[in-house]
């Protein structure tokens, strides 16, 4: 009985402290900002193909990804990407820019601990499991493809 009362008080406390979100505006912002990032990627790719007509389509896409990763890391360093992320939510996480941000943010946050134990060690705290999961999944799929 006492535990139930304590749980009710705790739940009321948590409910009072939780930030209220508005689902539809958040979804809309996520959609249009994510679309804007993808449109920017398409524009960069088209400009690369226009300015360098001898470049293959595959190389142009690789260059586009490099530019988007650089821009996201640069904006993370300036503190701008975090503001965009707070406004757009998953719209900035889903494209490759979110992955770039997840690597650059811990590196910036832990730079005071030194290059090795700070930046290098902490850089993959968030992105590390994603890299490992992707590598393992690709190996499994590759082995299945090899034997089938």
Number of strands: 0
Order of helices and strands: HHHHHHHH
Shape: extended
Main beta sheet strand tally, sense and closure: none
**Low-confidence parts lasting 5 or more residues at pLDDT below 50?**
none
In round numbers, the mean pLDDT is 84
Global structural class: mainly alpha
Alpha-carbon distance between the two ends: 60 Å
Kindly estimate the percentage of residues that lie in beta strands according to DSSP: under 5%
Radius of gyration: 21 Å
The DSSP helix count reads: 8
* DSSP helix fraction: over 70%
3D architecture notes:
The protein is mainly α. Helices cover 82% and strands 0% of the residues. It contains eight helices and no strands. The protein has helices at 2-17, 23-51, 57-78, 80-88, 90-93, 96-109, 115-122, 128-147. Helix 6 (96-109) packs antiparallel against helix 7 (115-122). The longest helix has 29 residues, at 23-51. The radius of gyration is 21 Å and the shape is extended. 14% of the residues are buried. The mean pLDDT is 84.
Name its key features:
mainly alpha; 8 helices; 0% strand; 82% helix; 148 residues; single chain
Report a brief summary of the structure:
With 148 residues, the protein is mainly α. The chain has helices spanning 2-17, 23-51, 57-78, 80-88, 90-93, 96-109, 115-122, 128-147.
């Amino acid at each position: 009985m006492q535990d139930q009362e304590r749980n009710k008080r705790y739940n009321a406390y948590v409910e009072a402290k939780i930030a209220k979100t508005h689902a539809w505006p958040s979804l809309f912002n996520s959609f249009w900002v994510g679309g804007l990032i993808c449109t920017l990627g398409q524009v960069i790719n088209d400009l690369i193909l226009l300015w360098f007509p001898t470049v293959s389509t595959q190389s142009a896409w690789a260059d586009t990804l490099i530019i988007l990763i650089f821009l996201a890391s640069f904006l993370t360093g300036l503190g701008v990407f975090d503001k965009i992320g707070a406004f757009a939510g998953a719209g900035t996480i889903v494209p490759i820019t979110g992955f770039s941000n997840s690597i650059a943010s811990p590196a910036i946050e832990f730079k005071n601990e030194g290059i090795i134990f700070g930046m290098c060690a902490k850089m993959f705290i968030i992105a590390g499991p994603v890299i490992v999961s992707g590598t393992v999944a690709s190996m499994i799929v590759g082995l299945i493809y090899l034997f089938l």
